[in-house]
Amino acid sequence: MHNTIAIQQVFTEAGQTFIENTLSLQDDAAVGALAEMLQAQYPQYDPTIEIINSVALLFADVAFKSGRRIAY
């Protein structure tokens, strides 16, 4: 048994024209259109975030191994 839901329930920000155009595309093109729409809504990739995450993980690892608490 397959359950279906309307695409508007998943992509609530998509307008009717976008949905109709996307549904008329071949699979790869439709996935590309949906990916572009989602990427346009979120901030661009920032490599600085990876550095910050690495430093935070390093501090957490040091705190864990030393048994100390680190204030954030």
Query: Termini, distance in Å?
Result: 49 Å
Taking pLDDT < 50 over at least 5 consecutive residues as the criterion, the unreliable ranges are: none
Query: How would you name the oligomeric state of the polypeptide chains in this document?
Result: single chain
- The percent of residues in helical segments reads 55-70%
Rg from alpha-carbon coordinates: 21 Å
Order of helices and strands: HHHH
Give the count of helical stretches. 4
Structural class: mainly alpha
Tell me, briefly, the overall form. elongated
Overall strand count: 0
- Give the amount of beta strand, in percent: under 5%
Averaged pLDDT: 82
Biggest beta-sheet profile: none
Write the layout of secondary structure elements.
Elements: H1 7-10, H2 16-23, H3 27-41, H4 47-66
